[in-house]
Amino acid sequence: MDAQSRGRAEEIDPADQWVLNPRTGNYELRLDHSAAQAPAQRSAPGAGPRRAPAAPGSPAAPAPAVPGPRRGEGPPGGRRGGRSRKGGGGRRKKILVVTGGTLAFLLVGGSVAAYLYYDHLNGNLTVTDVGDAGTSGGFKKDQAINILVIGTDKRSGAGNEGYGDAGSVGHADTTILFHVSKDRSNATALSIPRDLITNVPACPTKQPDGSTKNIAGERGARFNTSLGQAGRDPGCTMRTVKELTGIQVDHFMMADFNAVKNLSTAVGGVPVCVEKAVDDKDSKLKLSAGQHRLEGEQALAFVRTRHAFGQRSDLDRIKTQQQFLSSMMREMKSKQTLTSPQKFFSLAEAATKSLSVDSGIGSIDKLTELAGELKDIDLKNITFTTLPVIDNPAEPDDAKATVVIKPAQAEPLLQMIRGDVSLTEVEQKEQAAKDAADADAKAKLDALTQGNRAAAKDVRVDVYNGGGPAGSASGTLNWLQNTKGVGKSSNLGNAPAKVETTQLEYAPNQADQARALMDMMGLPATALKMGTADAAPKTPMKLTLGADFKGAGVSLTAPQKAPEGVQRVEADKEVCAK
To answer: Could you tell me if 205 and 215 are in contact, meaning their C-beta atoms sit under 8 angstroms apart?
Structure first.
C-alpha cells in the first residue's frame, strides 16, 4: 500500500482483518470494511532460517492453506486473551518480496499478513555467510543501500532439467545492482552483462565445515564466472562488482529458475506486450502480436529468450527482462494484489522459498526492516539501466562472444550511482539547490585565489580515514605521491571521528593548495572548509575521507545527467518488446 493510500477505508490492510465471529466464537479472516478489528500477536520466534554455503536447490512450492483459528483461539500467531504488543508485531505487517531469479529482479513493498506464519517463512530462507564482502549492520538513515540481485543458471528444482547448462554449479547468469538513494526517494537498477570481461578478485569463502577457503582471483574472466566457478560463492560476485564499479555492495539476494515461474504465478500472471508474433523453438516461447498475461513456464520462456527480440543478443535479452520485471513490479503494487490475502500468502511463500541471502538480511525481521526502507519509493522513480559495453575488440569480427566496458559512457553513469544522483527527475529541485551551493562555494574560492592553483609539489596535506573503506588513507597517499606528484603528503591513519562526507580543511593562505587538491581528487567545492586564520609556513592541510569516499582517483563530483545513449527504462512505463 503506498503512502498516499495508507489508511483509506477502501484499502484496509488484510493483515488486520482477523475478527471474532460472535456466532461461532472463532476468529476469521474478513475483508468487509465494517468488521471490528481484533489485535494480532506474533508468535515467538521458533526455528531460524536454514543455512547453507550455496543457493537453495529445491523449487518453491505452492503456498500452503492457512487455516482459521480453532474455537477459543486468537488470530494465528496470537495468544488467547492477550493484548497487542507494540513494536515487532506492527513491523511485520510490512514485508518486501524481493528476489533474484535466474532472469528475475522483483520488488514490492506493501502490507501482508506475514506475521501469521512468521516462523514458517523464516525457515524458508537459505542464508550464506559472505564474511566482510557486505555489511552486517542495520540500515542507516542518510546512507544509500546497494543490493546485488543474482539469478543463477543452476538446474535445481523439478521441471528445470532442460534449462541452463547441464551440470552447471550455478553461475551469475543475470545480475542487477539495485542502488537505493540516501533519502529513499528513488532507486537505480543496473544490469551487468554476464559475458563482460573483467577481473574477478581473490575471495575467502566459508565451507560447510566452518573453515574458510581462499579462492584465487582471475584476470580477464567472464563476469558470470564470479559465481560457482572454482567454488566461488555470492560474496565473490559482490567483491567483483565492487572492483568493477567502485560501489560497495551491502547485501545479496539470489535464486534460480523457480523464482520467475512461482512468483509470476503467485501474482496471477504478468502483463507483457510484444510488437510482433514470436515462435522461439529454443526457449519454447510462442506468442501472437499484442498483449498477453504470462505465468509459470511461459513467463520463464519470455525472460529467457535470446532469439525473439532485437538483435538476438544477451544485451537485448537484458532489455526484455527489464521490461518484464517492471511489469511484474507494477502488478505487485497494484490494488488487485495489495488487497488479495491469497496472493500475498502465495507471494510470501514463493519468494522466501526462492531466496538465498547473506547473513546481514538473513531473517524475516531483517527483510521486513529492509521493506521499511523501500516501501515508499514510487515506481516512476525506479530506473532500470545497463552497464554500457562494446564488443570485445580482442575477438575476431566473425566470432564476437564477449563484451568490455565502454568507458566514455560507463564511468559517468557509475559516478552518478556512486554520487547518489537519480536517473529520474525526482530530485531536480534538491539537486538544483546543491548545484547552487557548490557554484557559490567555487565562486568564493575563485575570488580568494584569483583562479590560481598551487603546483602539485607545493601542496601539503595530511590524510585521515574518517569513514571510507579500509585502507583508504594509505591508498590515497600512494595515489597522491606516485600518480599526482604530491610529495608533501602524509597518512595519519583513522580520524578522531567518523564523517559522512569527505572534507578538506585549509587556511585562507592555503586556498591555492586547496583548489589544486580539489581539482585532482574531484572534490565538490562544498567539501572545502576554510579556517579563519592563516597557517604557519609548512603547515599541512587536513583531508578527512568520509563515508562517501569510494577510492583514490574516484571523483566525488558526479554528473547530474546520464550520458547520451545510455539505455534505461522507468519501472512505471509499459514498453512493448520488439
So the answer is: yes
Closest to 352 measured CA to CA, from 506, 127, 557: 127
Q: Quick one: cell of 155?
A: 538446474
- State the alpha helices, DSSP H only, in 355-406: 364-374
Handedness of CA 251, 295, 567, 335 (dihedral sign): negative
Let me know if 2 is exposed, middle or buried by CB neighbors in 10 A (0-12, 13-18, 19+): middle
Q: How many CB atoms lie within 10 A of CB 161?
A: 9
| DSSP designation for 33 | T
Please, are residues 514 and 445 in contact by the beta-carbon 8 Å criterion?
yes
Other C-beta atoms lying within 10 Å of the C-beta of residue 34: 6
503/467 Cα distance (integer angstroms): 11
Is residue 554 packed enough to be buried (19+ CB in 10 Å), middle (13-18) or exposed (0-12)?
A: middle
pTM (two decimals)? 0.68
Q: 3-state DSSP call for residue 94?
A: strand
**Cell numbers that stand for 413 in this block:** 553513469
**Whole-angstrom distance, CA of residue 14 vs CA of residue 428:** 36
User: How far from 12 is each of 87, 107, 365, CA to CA, in Å?
Assistant: 20, 21, 23
| 99-101 and 203-206 strand pairing | unpaired
CA distances from residue 185 to 37, 181, 205 in whole angstroms, order as listed? 32, 6, 35
Residue 363's closest CA among 18, 88, 151? 88
Q: Give exposure, 195-214, as e/b (b: 16+ Cβ within 10 Å).
A: bbbbebbebbbbeeeeeeee
What is the rounded CA–CA span in Å between residue 314 and residue 305? 9
Going from the C-alpha of 505 to that of each of 232, 282, 454, 493, the distances in angstroms are 43, 62, 16, 16
Query: How does pLDDT run along the chain (578 residues), one tens digit per residue?
Result: 333 333 343 444 443 444 445 555 444 444 444 433 443 333 333 444 554 444 333 333 333 333 333 434 343 334 333 333 444 444 443 333 333 322 223 333 333 333 446 677 888 888 999 999 998 777 888 789 999 999 887 655 555 445 455 555 578 888 999 999 988 989 999 999 999 999 999 999 988 788 899 999 999 999 999 998 889 999 999 999 999 998 999 999 997 878 888 889 988 999 999 999 999 888 889 999 999 999 999 998 898 887 788 777 888 889 998 999 899 889 888 877 777 878 877 888 888 888 889 999 998 888 888 888 888 888 999 999 999 999 999 999 888 899 999 998 998 899 889 888 888 865 555 555 566 666 666 677 776 666 677 899 999 999 999 988 889 999 999 999 999 999 999 999 999 998 888 999 999 999 999 989 988 888 888 788 989 999 999 999 999 999 888 788 777 777 777 888 888 888 888 888 88
Closest CA to 503 of 458, 538, 468: 468
| Rounded Cα distance, 119 and 43, in Å | 8
Q: What is the DSSP-derived secondary structure letter of residue 577? A: B
Q: Which amino acid is at 3?
A: A
Grid cell 567502485 is found at: 246
Widest CA span in the chain: 89
Cell numbers at 367, concatenated: 527483510
